[in-house]
Amino acid sequence: MTDVPIRSITISDFRRLAGTRTLPLDAPIVLIHGSNGAGKTSVLSALELGLTGQIRSLQRQDPRYTAHLPTLGQDFATVRVEVDSSFTINQGAAAPLTAGGSRIEGNPALTPEAANFYGERCYLDQASLGRLLELYQHREGKQESALAQFVNELLGLEQLDALRTGLSAANDLRSLKKLADRLDDAATRADHAEAALTETTRDLTDARAEIDQARAAARAAARSLGLDPPESPKAERTAGHIDEDADDRLIGAIRRAVADQDLDTERTQLLALQRDLIALGGRLDAAAARPSTLDLTQARDELNEATQQLELWEGGVGPDIEAWQRAARAAGVALDTDHGADIHRALNEVQRLLDSQTALQTEQQAIQSRLDSDQQHLDSLQERLLDAQEHATALVEGLASIRTAVTSDICPVCDRDYAELGLGHLGAHVDAKITQLSQRGQRLLDLRQERDALRVTIARTQTELEATTAALLEPVQAGELEVRAAELARLRDAWQLLGPAAETGRTMRTAEAQARRRVEEFETASIEDQFARAELARCAAILGRPIPDGDTIRAIWEILSGAVRSRLEEIGKRAATQRDGTSAAERMEQALRRQADAVARVADAAQHKGEWDACLKEGRRRQAVARAVFDAATEVRTNVVQRVFTQSLNRVWMSLFSRLAPNEGFIPSFGIPTSSKSGLELTLRTVHREGREGGSPQMMLSAGNLNTAALSLFLALHLAVDPVIPCLVFDDPVQAMDEVHVAQFAGLIRVLARQHERQVIIAVHERELFDYLALELSPAYEGDELLTIELGERSLEQDRGITRHIWTPDPAIAG
Is the pTM of this model over 0.70? Predict the structure, then answer.
């Protein structure tokens, strides 16, 4: 059948359903049977997930329910539901929806509107049936309950409720500010403007106090500069006269007084003069340590006398000494201050070289003698070694060859009988001789070792001889060294005669140099004295002071230095006064600017405060208008609800309950709804068939009839509006019903499927109930159809437990 909304479902590894199964659902009525744990609830949960993208009953219990949807041991589960194309926005074949871990991936089969309608008004899961009345009346915060939302939709109050919802914030200014950004901004800005006005007023008060302090400091500074400041504005206000320019005139007078007194130039001139006097004082201290200019003549006489004596000496023995020095340098002597020591050192070095050559010659002769002796010994050993080697080798070889022929005492060489000698056997005698000759071979080895050792000794001696020979000078060089030694001995003897005269000349040169330095010091002292007097005269002229007569140079320097220090201290005090005046003037100018700025900010803040207060006042006026409209809309809504409510939903609910539970005396219904700020408030009650009002359904009905009340309310809410998707899905809805209730429920399902054109899917777990419903809901006319699905062991058979029941005419009736 193709005109039903839900066509089929394919499930893979979903909860109890391991593997992959595809179940057809394209029939007006679908019955699903399975014992507890067979998977019938899993099928309906998978159907809800595939249609809406969520499972509301599981989500209420655990927000992380998606982690438990895959079959144990699997990472994810997949569900694909085929629906009529008018209920989906998906293009082409339905795509699978995957669940596992913390997320669900894929798009549900239904449109968002149809998915919401299915979850609220089409699917009644087993866990929610017993709590349905509680769930319908539950509300979170200020939101309306699900039942109140259904009633609003039933009564068609969306526009009126939208008006009330839009104006609900008008009841509270704080809520209104959250929606009206400009109103909230106006209130915030009004508060900020008032705070700014308070702050700027405080700043203005502080600025005026600062001006009074700055004005007092400026007047004191003006008096220190020799000015006569005008009366303060405060005193003038007290006397009734206000002069707004008095502060500006006071500041101008201070600045002009400071500008007229150019202290920087005078200070710079005095500092330069002080530096010159300090430098002059240092030169005076240095001159005081030098001799007086009064001894200059005597020093010059002493210099002339020392010069004459030095000239006489240089004209006498001077040339002889110079000639000796030239000869010494030519002989390679490095002359220093002590020529005698220099010549002795050079002569000792040459004599040491001559002695070392003599020792080397002696050593060379000894080495050569030792080498000749060793060579003669080597030659003798070589001859002995050759002779012994030749004799021993030939004899041993001969005897060894004869020994093989000796078999008796007859000698194979001379044919004589060795036994005649009575010395034993001939073989033994030959063996003894061979042994004796073999022992002589050790002697040959000793001779070879002695020869080899002697060769090593000779090679070492030759190396030593070569090194000694290389260290000896050539004959020409040795002769030159002897000539130099003779020349140095001659120079040594000559210096013994010239040494006293040279010492006298050295003393004369020292005396002449000291006399010359003394004359130069006297002349420098005279020049420093003249410079100091001229410099002091220049300093006195700059200071405008005369030089005292009769005072020493040091005394004049002390007087002028003291005068410079006094003048600098005076200028420092005047400069400090000027700085204080300038600082006071700047401080007063800054205080005046801050006061002017504070006045402007106070005026600006007052203006802004007035503007935002006006905006806030207008906002409150509009809030009052909105509140009046809200109250009027609430009154109209209440009247509509009270007038229409009992004529629609209550009648349908009472009719359904009475049909399912015809023997129950108390009929559940809605109380008269009331409105509040948070929306419509509904209460449930019971009314006896005789008209008496009872308590709430939970108080007056049995557990079975309470489930019947919840089921009938669910059906009433479904039938009260045009369905977005015409289907109803129940998970074991008759588990607490007796036979009468079950029969009434079966009849109601037939009416829903055939008259109201609803596709009905029901899951039950009792076999007898399944068989009964399958019989009661079997096709009754042509085109009618029933689809039964059996889970558990029945699903393992060839038809997979799926049976499609199609209407066929009864032969008895047809005949």
Answer: no
